[in-house]
Amino acid sequence: MIHQSLFKHTSISFSTPFPTPPKRSRFHNHFPSTIRCNASDSLLSPPSVTVTESEHKSGPRPGGMGPYTGRDPNVKKPEWLRQKAPQGERFQEIKGSLSHLKLNTVCEEAQCPNIGECWNGGGDGIATATIMLLGDTCTRGCRFCAIKTSKSPPPPDPMEPINTALAIASWGVDYIVLTSVDRDDIPDGGSGHFAQTVKAMKDLKPEIMVECLTSDFRGDLKAVETLAHSGLDVFAHNVETVKRLQRIVRDPRAGYEQSLSVLNHAKHSKAGMITKTSIMLGLGETDDEVKEAMADLRAIDVDILTFGQYLQPTPLHLTVKEYVTPEKFAFWKEYGESIGFRYIASGPLVRSSYRAGELFVKTMVREKVKNDGDSLL
């Protein structure tokens, strides 16, 4: 569905306390805030079974359960994953404001468990909502994701890049994370649309910091290069899981080596580019496989890595194999930092653009900009 709003599928983070919306202007409501837009952040896991090629290609079965779906009655959700239903004054204000602007949020579309914490501001006073560019319908059918899918989504709005930039500039924000669904129906996968949006924002507000959490553009390195040179500060793309489980968890058009290639090319396309990725735990992966994936990511100099627990959104999605303990997540954070990652966010409810890393990443980007400036002197 395409919304008839001026700012379809942008993403917003509101600083707290949440301000009273001022009078309407040509840009609807102006919110002094920090903006973030993130990609699909669902985290899931399959049962411990062997998958044949024909079974993998079939994907989730809309007509009923497949061999890797359904609830496992022997795997009970632990207390540390139990979240209160989202509520609170700030949550309701943000929800109402987003509805007024006719924006779709990844928070709701992907059934993110952090929606209450993020929209209410957590402990640091920064409330975050996440919205998608390029529509709300994905062309892929990954078995872990709750985003709706279609082979032929509605075409992108050609005015979206400039309208998004105008809205963001009017809100006076200093950091934004742009994301999108996969758009394999577009020749460049939407890379040009991303780049236009980034350039429009930088033209209007050069000091704004921009992170893009992208698809793999089907391995099209020219598309990666186009986005890397658009002016963004952080290039994020998720490998999702360890090498062995890729064909079970992800759409056949995705892949481990393809994702590594995208991250590697983004890093080397532009000097100083900060790269970021995410791995889901609870998929049946072994410690050695996680360490292997981390070594592969460090070999291509990925800066930031997040770990989170897969939560099954519906019985038609992959079954949870294991609930990883908070202590084990803490171990992966310590181990990742010991082998050279600049930042690790690791916890049961962490998602790929988890808000806990925001202030750190902003500092990292500012340091990069300062160093780039010093090198020109």
Characterization of the model:
The chain is of the alpha/beta class and 377 residues long. It is built from twelve helices and nine strands. The strands form two sheets. A seven-stranded parallel sheet has the order 3-4-5-6-7-8-9, with helices on both faces. A two-stranded antiparallel ribbon has the order 1-2. Strand 8, helix 11 and strand 9 form a beta-alpha-beta unit. The longest helix is centred in the last third of the chain and has 18 residues, at 358-375. Mean pLDDT is 74; it is low at 1-64, 101-105 and 124-129.
Brief overview:
This protein is α/β, with parallel strands linked by helices and 377 residues long. The protein is built from twelve helices and nine strands.
Short key terms for the protein model shown above:
377 residues, seven-stranded parallel β-sheet, two-stranded antiparallel sheet, alpha/beta, globular
- Content-based structural category: alpha/beta
Beta-strand content:
5-15%
Q: State the end-to-end CA separation.
A: 50 Å
Residue-averaged pLDDT: 74
Radius of gyration from CA coordinates:
20 Å
How many strand segments? Answer: 9
Low-confidence stretches: 1-64, 101-105, 124-129
Give the helix tally: 12
Main-sheet strand order equals 3-4-5-6-7-8-9
Write the layout of secondary structure elements.
Layout: E1 13-15, H1 53-58, H2 89-101, H3 106-109, H4 115-120, E2 126-128, E3 132-133, H5 160-171, E4 175-180, H6 191-204, E5 209-214, H7 221-228, E6 234-237, H8 246-249, H9 256-269, E7 274-281, H10 287-299, E8 304-309, H11 326-338, E9 343-346, H12 358-375
Parallel strand pairs: 3-4, 4-5, 5-6, 6-7, 7-8, 8-9
Antiparallel strand pairs: 1-2
